[in-house]
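Escalated from tier 1: glutathione holo job.
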Amino acid sequence: MGKNIDRDLLELRGSSISYFTGKMENYFRLKGIPYRLESMVFPGEVERNRKVLGISQMPTVQLADGRWMTDTTAMIEWFESEYPDNSVVPDDPVQAFVCFLLEDWADEWWWRPAMHYRWFYEEGARFASGHLAREVMGGLHLPLFVKRAMLRRRQRNGYTRGDGIGPEAVAGVEADVAALFSQLEDIFSKRPYLLGDRPTLADVGFSGPFFRHFALDPIPLQVLRHTAPNTLEWVMRLWNSRPESLQGALIQGVPDDIHALLQHMARGYLPYLNANVDAVRQGKSTFTAKVDGVTYTQARSSHYRVWCLSELRSRFNVVPQDVQPGLELLLTKAGIWEALWAQDDLPLAEGQESRLPFWADHKMLQVNR
Ligand SMILES: N[C@@H](CCC(=O)N[C@@H](CS)C(=O)NCC(=O)O)C(=O)O
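Tier 2 regenerated the structure:
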């Protein structure tokens, strides 16, 4: 039976167990934007991706007119301007800024613990290496066990041990995840989505670590079932939402439970971002930093995350003048404000990432193959 391909449909290319592919799918479903998921094929697509996008990462999107896109944050921003109905960004500029913060934290901080649970534990590595070897490595003519071993090695060297989680960091990383689960459980036992009765960009951001990692990989799924069942329900509620779900009311302002999330973000992610800025400025490819009581030994430095910090600053600068003092006070109380502006002259390349989502200058992390 031939495959019935609708050429007008967006093509989302990635993997059915990938963090950022899952984030993009949650967004498309919520907005009612039809798409077709196709598995990226390694190594065949890597060269093409580099040619059309500058880098190769998951997912990519190909528009019906043939243009290629990458980077979920920049893609979502682009789709929001193309499909302005039922925006996922709240009208209230303070809540909108909180969404940008939470999305960035979800993308760039929770990525590492998500990879840890998948690749550190045998149960996770067995599941994911088997799945990925079959799904995306069809283009490599090697025995399955070799592909699986290659994947484990690559992911551990790139994203877990090789990105700062040595044996001494494991307990701290897992305690950090447990603290997040407990904070989210508190929120989702009171309301269906992070900011009220409808999902926002903050929920879409958190679908990254949750949908295809914490709520899929054997170990964290077991932890979620037992410690955070309301959070597990939220994962599926978001996946099952449609444009009609974007009608509900949002809460007023920024309640204490969201403030607590911002304080959590301020403890680990912001000091890490600043340590990363120092490393990039000094031209170091790895750095060691103790943040929130956990020592990350030889974490990879990231040019992309320097840009993330600068994006958060730019987002603050476009908040209406009369709203800025209130937002500044909120961020100061959360412990974010000072860290956000701690450094002058961020080490960014000229025009870095300015062509996203149609061209990317830097990968999130450079992984040696
Ligand atoms: N910030 C990017 C990150 C995308 C990303 O890092 N994707 C991962 C897989 S989910 C990847 O392709 N990493 C590159 C690699 O493993 O070489 C986004 O939002 O799309």
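The chain has a mean pLDDT of 96.
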